[in-house]
Amino acid sequence: MGAFKLGKMTISGLFKQPETVQYPVQTKTPPTGLKGHVTNDVTQCILCGICQKRCPCGAIEVSKPNRTWSINRFRCVQCGSCVRECPKSCLIMEPTYAPCSTAKHVDVFEVPEHHKSEDVIKTSE
Amino acid sequence: MGKATIIPFGPQHPVLPEPLHLDLVVEDEKVVEAIPQIGFVHRGLEKLVETRDYNQFIYVAERICGICAFGHSYGYAETVERLMGVEVPERAQYLRVIWHELSRVHSHILWLGLAADAFGYESLFMHCWRLRERVLDIFEKTTGGRVIFSVVKVGGVVRDIDAAQLAEIIRVLEGIKQDYKQIMDAFLKDSSVMNRTVGVGYLSFEDATNLSMVGPFARASNVPYDVRSLGIGAYGSLSDFEPIVDAQGDCYARMKVRALEVLQSIDIIEEMIARIPSGDIAVAVKGSPADGAEAACVVEQPRGECYYYARGNGSKNLERMRMRTPTSQNLAGMVKALEGCDLADVNMVILTIDPCISCTER
Ligand code: SF4
Ligand code: SF4
Q: How far apart are the C-alpha atoms of B334 and B208, rounded to whole Å?
């Protein structure tokens, strides 16, 4: 019994470094395995559509005729299934969060015919 | 004796972020009856098995609850593995237990903080959540997520924890333990905490067993039931496991059981890390559950026993997936414990069952 059981911890807290960071002036470095956002290295993509089939949220749309691979980031839950299942390992989970969006849109990646990295164009719809 | 009055409580109430509505029948300042009502956040998650295959449903299962997210994906995977007769590699079983116990540590510390907040001890609340943050950092480093991990799959787990990270977990947990012991002292010995909790919201052993209470709520009424003692998965290889019980049956006992379970979980994690075997972390799962095949499984979530049931229909989609979450059991006991308490103590009694209404309704 007795009060002020937390006294020691509270007083020593006055002399310790803060556990929080002054965001956004300071930021923490994201850990390497962080599930940030999915990107596609389109030079490798063969538009097989497996990622679209595996995605539990219907976030990915692969269009063979238009040669596009698109992702609706508002639907994606960062589960990582597409990254694991891609046969060409061209999907990557980047360990940074995508910047905030100001409008709803779908990220469309155009997949080049001859797999040259210079041809990569990313547009937003 | 005064006239009976009905005082509504919730579904939005400062003490409880959960959408639970209670009609409190009070006479003077005493509650004579509590009539609960839920159904404000029904999400229809069980129905989604019809449109998501058994591999995809795991991401739905882990969204049942934001705090026991790992536990639900673990329980679901375990059930489907039984349904399909899949043998999970030993290392994966150990990793699952490590993550599951880490979830328990953060869930209980979160709850202790909420309890402190409910009786107005703000600094204690902040210290609890400060400690919990370190567990979330472990999750972020090992799974890539802080709340939803997506790290379990049918047949194993998707990520390994390497030796350096395991050593880091031990180091962080040792640090947490040092600070946590002081916090626990405040919860269990501080007079201002005891004034609010001792003798409040009593539930007898008979009531707890008759109403089939589960989890720390039951164990605080001396019911020695903890699913972990059944030795499912890697829990079977623990050198010894005794459920933590208390005979007092009041709010203080429930707090004490949870406070001690944090230390117990840390011990389990340390033992698991010391004995984790090397090897594969997943096996390939092919095919679909057979038509009419059934499987059931229980997992000890931070709030108590959760029951899972699955039935196959020969296709990739399950015929039925059913979860019975701990709070759906414990609501009956909560209503019983509320009878006869002071109106001012209602929030303490409700909090000490650690209700999770969102997972109850799914
Ligand atoms: S699975 Fe990989 S290769 Fe196939 S369409 Fe998706 S990103 Fe392209
Ligand atoms: S990470 Fe998951 S939800 Fe997001 S696009 Fe890939 S499969 Fe779909």
A: 10
